[in-house]
């Protein structure tokens, strides 16, 4: 009898411990990369730009970049400007593809090396045509800045920025056309982050959301309000699909939590009962 009671106690404790381990495993391990974080390598570009020999106006560039969306996604100096950041003697070598600062009218093509869809839509827009015709129209840097670039948001459409070139009325209409879809994408993104924080794999949904956001924001660069409104239904359907999967995953997570709590309660109760029986049996001895 003693052995049976002891075995029941061990099994109860093991079950509770396993449930706790599983929860910790899902939260702390599955939601994080193997290496724990990116390895920061030395860069001749940053070392030079932060040195005393650099012009004061250029020294702030690394700090701007380090606080940017590019830096967060490991897009570094050479990814845009070329050159070899590991070799100071070749950091500004044209042999290694160094291009330095582009001419004002060439900025769209410069950024378009990565942002291909956006560049295409921009060049066909009123903004792009104005730039190519007069070399004075707005380019990427006009709205997004150069080195301190932040994550895309409709907040960039604001009266202070847009009235530098024209009235705010048309821009305001565009912002209104974008608002509901952008708001919904933000809410879905938040839900996915919460699920990932719980150790749930949501990689497929995140990829779909990312591509949907990218296409929608690329469409904005046409500066064509009617086209944005016309395409809204298509993007809404895509978001419906992502949201359906999110709701399904959230429901499964709630069931798992409830079941885990139920098992913990049951085994805790069993442990108490077994303990009481063991004490009674001992008293009889």
Structure write-up:
67% of the residues lie in helices and 0% in strands. It is mostly helical. The protein has a domain at 1-30 and 154-285. Helix 1 packs antiparallel against helix 14 (225-284), helix 8 (116-123) runs parallel beside helix 13 (203-220) and helix 12 (169-197) packs antiparallel against helix 13. The model is unreliable at 1-22 and 24-39 (pLDDT under 50).
H-E order: HHHHHHHHHHHHHH
**Cα distance, first to last residue?**
12 Å
Number of separate helices = 14
State the assembly state of the protein chains: single chain
Outline the low-pLDDT stretches: 1-22, 24-39
Q: How much helical structure, as a percent, in the residues?
A: 55-70%
**DSSP strand tally:** 0
Question: Strand-residue fraction?
Answer: under 5%
Q: Class by helix and strand content?
A: mainly alpha
Mean pLDDT, rounded to whole units?
A: 83
Shape descriptor: flat
* Radius of gyration from CA coordinates: 28 Å
| Largest β sheet strand count, sense and barrel closure | none
Features:
flat, mainly alpha, disordered N terminus, about 280 residues
Q: What is the fold's blueprint, element by element?
A:
Layout lengths: L1 H28 L14 H6 L6 H4 L1 H6 L2 H4 L4 H5 L25 H5 L4 H8 L2 H9 L5 H5 L14 H4 L6 H29 L5 H18 L4 H60 L1
Helix pairs in contact: 1-14, 8-13, 12-13, 12-14, 13-14
What is this structure, in a nutshell?
The protein has helices at residues 2-29, 44-49, 56-59, 61-66, 69-72, 77-81, 107-111, 116-123, 126-134, 140-144, 159-162, 169-197, 203-220, 225-284. The protein is mainly α and 285 residues long.
């Amino acid at each position: 009898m003693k052995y049976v009671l002891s075995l029941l106690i061990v099994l109860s404790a093991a079950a509770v411990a396993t449930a706790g381990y599983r929860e910790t495993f899902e939260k702390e391990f599955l939601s994080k990369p193997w290496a724990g974080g990116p390895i920061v390598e030395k860069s001749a570009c940053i070392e030079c730009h932060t040195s005393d020999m650099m012009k004061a106006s250029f020294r702030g560039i690394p700090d701007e970049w380090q606080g940017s969306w590019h830096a967060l996604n490991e897009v570094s100096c050479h990814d845009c400007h070329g050159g070899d950041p590991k070799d100071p003697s070749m950091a500004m070598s044209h042999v290694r593809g160094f291009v330095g600062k582009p001419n004002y009218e060439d900025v769209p093509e410069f950024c378009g090396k990565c942002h291909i869809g956006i560049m295409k839509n921009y060049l066909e827009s009123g903004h792009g045509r104005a730039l190519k015709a007069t070399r004075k129209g707005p380019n990427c840097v006009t709205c997004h800045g150069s080195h301190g670039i932040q994550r895309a948001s409709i907040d960039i459409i604001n009266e202070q920025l847009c009235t530098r070139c024209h009235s705010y009325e048309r821009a305001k209409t565009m912002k209104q056309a974008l608002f509901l879809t952008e708001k919904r994408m933000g809410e879905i993104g938040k839900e996915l982050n919460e699920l990932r924080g719980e150790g749930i794999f949501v990689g497929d949904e995140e990829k779909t959301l990312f591509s949907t956001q990218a296409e929608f924001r690329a469409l904005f660069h046409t500066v064509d309000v009617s086209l944005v409104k016309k395409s809204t239904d298509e993007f809404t359907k895509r978001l419906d699909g992502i949201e359906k999967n999110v709701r399904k995953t959230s429901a499964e997570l709630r069931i798992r939590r409830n079941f885990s709590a139920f098992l913990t309660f049951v085994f805790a109760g069993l442990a108490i009962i077994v303990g009481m029986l063991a004490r009674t049996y001992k008293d009889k001895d």
